[in-house]
Amino acid sequence: MYFGLTFNPEKYPDVTERLQEHASIFNEKLEMHLIVDLNLLEIYFKSMDLTIIDRVLLYDLEELGSWETFKSFSNLCGKYGLEYSVIKKSIDLHSDVDVPIGYLTEIIQEELLTNIKTKGEELMDSNSKQYTKSQIDFINKKLQASARMAARTEKEIHSLFTDDEINLVKENWNGSKPSTGRSFKDRLLYQVVAVIPEEVLVTNWNVDRRELLRKISDITEYQAFTLIRISIQKQTG
Question: CA 59, 63, 20 angle in degrees (round to 5)?
Answer without folding.
Answer: 20
